[in-house]
Amino acid sequence: MTKSDSFEALTPETLPARLGGLPVLTARLGADPGAWAVREVGDGNLNLVFVVEGPKGSAVVKQALPYVRLVGESWPLPLKRSFFEYHALTRQQARAGKGTVPEIYHFDEAQALIVMEYLTPHVILRRALIDGRKLPRIGRDLGLFAARTLFRGSDLAMTARERKQDLALFADNVELCDITENLVFTDPYFEAELNRHTPGLEPLVAELRADRDLKVEAQRLKHLFAAKAETLLHGDLHTGSIMATEGDTRVIDPEFACYGPMAFDVGMLLANFWMSLFSQAGHEEDNSREPMRAYLLATVTEIWAVFRAEFSALWRSERNGMLYARSVFEERGDALGAEQALDRVLHELWDDLLGFAGVEIHRRILGLAHNADFETIADEGLRAKCEAPALRFGRHLAVNRHRIHSIEEVNALAARIDREARA
Amino acid sequence: MTKSDSFEALTPETLPARLGGLPVLTARLGADPGAWAVREVGDGNLNLVFVVEGPKGSAVVKQALPYVRLVGESWPLPLKRSFFEYHALTRQQARAGKGTVPEIYHFDEAQALIVMEYLTPHVILRRALIDGRKLPRIGRDLGLFAARTLFRGSDLAMTARERKQDLALFADNVELCDITENLVFTDPYFEAELNRHTPGLEPLVAELRADRDLKVEAQRLKHLFAAKAETLLHGDLHTGSIMATEGDTRVIDPEFACYGPMAFDVGMLLANFWMSLFSQAGHEEDNSREPMRAYLLATVTEIWAVFRAEFSALWRSERNGMLYARSVFEERGDALGAEQALDRVLHELWDDLLGFAGVEIHRRILGLAHNADFETIADEGLRAKCEAPALRFGRHLAVNRHRIHSIEEVNALAARIDREARA
Fold first, then answer.
1. Residues 6+ apart with CB under 8 A from B376
2. DSSP H or E stretch at residue B49
3. Rounded (10°) CA dihedral A256, A261, A262, A263
4. Measuring CA to CA, how many Å separate B39 from each of A272, A302, B72, B104, B277?
5. Quick check: A160 contacting B, CB < 8 Å?
């Protein structure tokens, strides 16, 4: 492995020579780098991703580039995001358990590369949902992952010193945070240069950008995201950041990790299932996707139910941080006081996650980074017909988030809006 | 001046020899340190404070001790608080203007000492209020100070990178933050070892510590304080941290500075005026303090009115940070959208400041750090009679903060509770 401090992007041709001396790789793949097969598989917006296979086994090498891959060298982006991804992965594994993220074999800060487990036969969850595949474990696995990482990364569980040190560490992830702050919360709501949307949506886009209540709420959500340093977020927890099989679920790509409100990760996650719902009409033949729609709504319900149950269990068993101290509740015989506080925390989280879900839907249809659920619908007319009800649904969530009572109510609304758009 | 890195506490005897080589001091006081008169005047809970006077002028030397002065060496406290105080003072001066804090002449990190302007004939505002003095400028000056420091230290005004760097810097002020987190929000609500209260209050104290809604709200406020890293707070903005004359107001002692919610500083500040109101009965003869009570309530009204007006003016003229971007409001001809957002921000700030005011009142009567307004009432029966209505008032604010409409309503309630307690 190169010991040089000066960054150099890997290629499939140079990778064996450059990483061939790395014991964690030779032990796993086989001692002769000449026998390794390397292919670049990165389909994301930012980085290089190599799958390396040798006689004995396989690994993934993910390397950051000093710019946004999707845009090019005109948009520089610090290599340090690899550092934050590495530190987020180690924390997520510690908090959610081994087997919830890829196993990390090696991190090289100067080369901004992480060597990790090659997940196979896993597929990107978003791809599976587009294909109409129903993966049975994701609702439960993702509900647990969110509850455990968000609870255990907060002042509910950590010591104040430890959390503040982590807050300071991740506060330096400025450029990636800035992408979220601007691309999610601001750009979709005016004619920003990087925006694009499917032709045909113009009247609705104009309506949304003239919608004062929506704009104010989006900016309040940005304020919440930027100011509420409550826990270490994944920061980009959508269905493209999840790899799954029938029996396994892994969360990947936390380079957007930062301290923020718990509701952000949960809201973004649910939003991507709702978008999948609205996109199904673009992928179906003869109403073939009705069971898929039911599966998606059931998965949303399950994620939120499992999240609440696990968060509540952790509240009762691991609430050892400085917040909601046992000394004023349980230790004074007032366990019900702690339950009342839990209700308030979950209620606020619910209100906020609906808002974050709403803006996530908007930015995926109106902003720079669209998602494949809609993008793979080749017929633009059909795509716009799927996206329009999603936009209206997102607006409803963002603006009415304090007046929505249950996940069943939201799902029923999504199903109705979707059905009416297809009628 | 000593160049040694090892900390050594100053004494009036050693100060001239140790600081006599400091050009900023000799230039101000006179070249011969032997002609300096030094007295230690620290009456706070934490530090040493020396007034140094020479033939040409004067200065103050404030030095941190490696423990809490009020408690002793059994409670260690890092010298680094002096570093945070220094950096907070420089930011406050930049944001609120020269003449709002003491001018800084010199900072020595290793010796944890700050050499600054000796404010004379200023008095500690709390002392003036106890004495029944009505200082005419404080309402306006403090409203402006709070609005300018809180607005300009947030994502409303700063660049994201600059604010996140400052957030990381002050995140290290763990021990001082910990004092606020525990002494303000938790200890008063159970039988913590360091608590004390005036004899006679026992039944009311028991009632408050059994009050589930109050305890839940206090913990929610702690959650807000710990998680909402919105702006650089003074962190201890009470009437003992303000020095004033008829014509000048200075804010001192920001060693508790940390990132937190804007409402915290404002709430603590107003709480200390309301406590002064409730304490007046302990200092008056023959209803002589009626005009003082009117002055205190008018000052509360003025602080909040000036704060809102200045905050609103800055919102319109200096909102150049990433929040509530002009690109989605003014630049689309939607100035009213920005006003709607301002209303929402001020409304939330209002709800939260009432809560912080409530717990501040409680901790000053039930916790470790009491205040002189009540403590100087020698007659314990009379003191308890002043403190009891203050406790009830604090409970009302904390629990009902989302259902209180105006500062006039709060002041009328305070006046009524106070009057009835004296009847």
1. B130, B282, B283
2. strand B48-53
3. -100
4. 67, 69, 21, 19, 33
5. yes
Whether ipTM > 0.90 holds is yes
List all residues of chain B from 326 to 365 with a beta carbon under 8 Å from chain A: 327-329, 331-332, 334, 336-337, 340-341, 344-345
CA-based nearest distance A305→chain B, Å = 23
Which tokens belong to B205? 């104290």
pLDDT tier for residue A3 given thresholds of 50, 70 and 90: very low
- Check B215 against A174: CB less than 8 A apart: no
Asked if pLDDT for residue B1 goes beyond 70, the answer is no
In whole angstroms, what is the distance from residue A4 CA to residue A71 CA? 28
pLDDT digits (tens, 9 = 90+) for B21-58: 999 999 999 999 999 999 999 876 789 999 999 999 99
Tell me phi and psi for residue A100, to 5 degrees.
Answer: -100, -20
The C-alpha atoms of residue B87 and residue B109 are separated, in whole angstroms, by 11
> What is d(CA B12, CA B32) in angstroms, rounded to the nearest whole number?
16
Q: How far apart are CA A86 and CA A94, in angstroms?
A: 13
B214 and B208 Cβ atoms separated by less than 8 Å: yes
Gyration radius (Cα) of chain B, Å: 22
Distances (CA, A) of B232 to A40, B90, B249, B265, B268: 45, 12, 20, 10, 15
Task: Determine whether B121 is exposed, middle or buried from the number of CB atoms within 10 Å of its CB (0-12, 13-18, 19+).
Answer: exposed
Question: For residue B241, which of B124, B386, B140 has the smallest C-alpha distance?
Answer: B124
CB contact under 8 A, A327 and B164: no
> Which of helix, strand or coil describes residue A61?
strand
Residues of B in contact with A230 (CB under 8 A): 227
Task: List, in sequence order, the alpha helices (H) in B212-334.
Answer: 212-227, 262-279, 290-317
Tokens found for residue B266: 């404002």
Q: Which amino acid, one-letter code, is at B231?
A: T
Which strands make up the sheet holding B37-40, listed edge to edge?
B37-40, B48-53, B58-63, B113-116, B104-108
> What is d(CA A253, CA A268) in angstroms, rounded to the nearest whole number?
15
Angle between helices B138-152 and B81-96 (to 10 degrees): 100
Residue B3 has pLDDT above 50, yes or no: no
Whether A160 and B181 have beta carbons less than 8 Å apart is answered as: yes
Confidence of residue B409 (pLDDT cuts 50, 70, 90): very high
Chain B residues 240-269 with CB within 8 Å of chain A: 259, 261
Residue written as token pair 């032997």: B34
pLDDT band at A2 (very low <50, low <70, confident <90, very high): very low
Q: What is the pTM of this model?
A: 0.96
Contacts of B223 in chain A (CB under 8 A): 155, 323-324, 345
A and B: number of Cβ contacts within 8 A: 154
Q: Which two tokens stand for residue A50?
A: 């190599």
Tell me how long chain A is: 423
Summarised one tens digit per residue, pLDDT across range B172-216 is: 999 999 999 999 999 999 999 999 999 999 999 999 999 999 999
- The helix, strand and coil proportions of chain A, stated in percent and rounded to the nearest 5, come to 55, 10, 35
Tens-digit pLDDT profile for residues A291-345 = 999 999 999 999 999 999 999 999 999 999 999 999 999 999 999 999 999 999 9
Q: Is there a contact between B184 and B398 (Cβ–Cβ < 8 Å)?
A: no
Burial class (CB in 10 A: 0-12, 13-18, 19+), B205: buried
Looking at the complex, report in whole angstroms how far the Cα of residue A65 sits from the nearest Cα belonging to chain B. Answer: 21
For residue B169, give both structure tokens: 């810097």
Helix axes A212-227, B335-366, angle to 10 degrees: 40
How far from each other are the two terminal CA atoms of chain B, in whole angstroms? 59
Do residue A167 and residue B164 have CB atoms under 8 angstroms apart?
A: no
C-beta separation of B125 from B138 below 8 A: yes
